[in-house]
Amino acid sequence: MGLAATPQHLWAFDKRPATKNWVWITPDPAAADEMWVQRFADMKAAGIDAILLEVYNGRKAYWGSKRLPVETEWLERMIPLAKEAELELHAWMWTMPCLIPEIHEKHPEWFNVNRLGQSSLEKPAYVPYYKFMCPSRDEVHEFIRGTVAELCEYAIDGVHLDYVRHPDVILAKGLWPKYDIVQDKEYPQYDYCYCESCRKQFVDAGNIDPLEIDDPTKSQAWRQFRYDLVTNMVNNKLIPEAHKNGKLITAAVFPNWEMVRQEWRLWELDAVLPMLYHSFYLEDLKWVKQQCQKGIENMVAEKPLYSGLFVPALSPEELAQAVKLSLKGGAQGVSLFSYGAMTNAHWAALKKS
Ligand SMILES: [Zn+2]
């Protein structure tokens, strides 16, 4: 394996384009346009090439949506300013969680169900916003595709998918104390989705009802079925929608993808932005490099990987080191989470790295 892979990777290295750095930006519509002009200029000067603006958080749209509840028309304001600053603009949207009361009332069946039979609508895992829709349903695909389509009507460079997955069946170990839990195996209250649609489709494919399997956590077929539900939606619905509109499409993905049923190595995206938040996994910065290498090796088609860095857990010096290690691991740049956590010293460190 290793020997066969080497020449291809060397060749990939030779034709690698210049690096590209990204930053995730949470909504701040209250800041005046003049302030954003300055912020964008500063980011650009520090080495940022692309911004990811959070314009849909499962609850409110930050553009003049005709189909989602609108908070304010922030995207419309930011597009010309980003263009002026020569920054790529990617519209960051939540994918599976849906926190819109009207949808809850009209379509309770869209929401996923855990192995105890509890809908995420009534009993979300971990946090109140973990109301994930089920990826087995065409109506859910269409709802999400509609959001991608509407964003593509704007003069953006791309759409960025977040939460494109199932809920975490096992959280990253560093988060266990926060929720006061120990997840030494896949417990039923965090294990999705056992809704009627999922179970029926699995049975129709020639399997037994997952609720009748002695230990469904041991069934590779059931596991793969759930990975495939997400992959099918991404590859066959969301990516074609972006591409037919001439937009790029990327996603924020998990290094421990099995735990969120997110087999992104198969996704036909334009780039992947794995969230290599080392502190969540109680790991050090070497792990960031290893995860870049692993992610690149595992993807079936060659595409850029940008290393997602968790700034609150990085001193400015560590940020510079994480950037270097990411590039050594084969990343074509980094993506910073998030803008609000970057101090002047962090920007200075990025600029030098
Ligand atoms: Zn389901």
Describe the fold and architecture.
- Mean pLDDT is 95; it is low at 1-9.
- Helices cover 38% and strands 12% of the residues.
- The chain has helices spanning 2-14, 33-46, 74-84, 101-106, 138-152, 176-179, 196-204, 220-244, 285-298, 316-328, 344-352, and strands at residues 22-25, 50-56, 88-94, 158-162, 248-253, 271-274, 307-310, 334-337.
- The site of zinc ion has 7 residues, from helix 7.
List the uncertain runs. Answer: 1-9
| Total DSSP E strands | 8
Gyration radius (Cα, Å) is 20 Å
Q: What's the order of the H and E elements? A: HEHEHEHHEHHHEEHEHEH
Task: Give the distance, in angstroms, between the N- and C-terminal Cα atoms.
Answer: 33 Å
Report the average pLDDT across residues. 95
How do the strands of the widest beta sheet line up side by side? 6-5-4-3-2-1-8-7
Structural class: alpha/beta
| Helical residue percent band | 25-40%
Overall shape: it is: globular
User: Which small compounds were modeled alongside the protein?
Assistant: zinc ion
Largest sheet descriptor: 8 strands, parallel
Number of contiguous helices = 11
Proportion in β-strands: 5-15%
Topology record:
Elements: H1 2-14, E1 22-25, H2 33-46, E2 50-56, H3 74-84, E3 88-94, H4 101-106, H5 138-152, E4 158-162, H6 176-179, H7 196-204, H8 220-244, E5 248-253, E6 271-274, H9 285-298, E7 307-310, H10 316-328, E8 334-337, H11 344-352
Parallel strand pairs: 1-2, 1-8, 2-3, 3-4, 4-5, 5-6, 7-8
Bound molecules: zinc ion.
In short:
The protein is α/β, with parallel strands linked by helices and 353 residues long. The chain has eleven helices and eight strands.
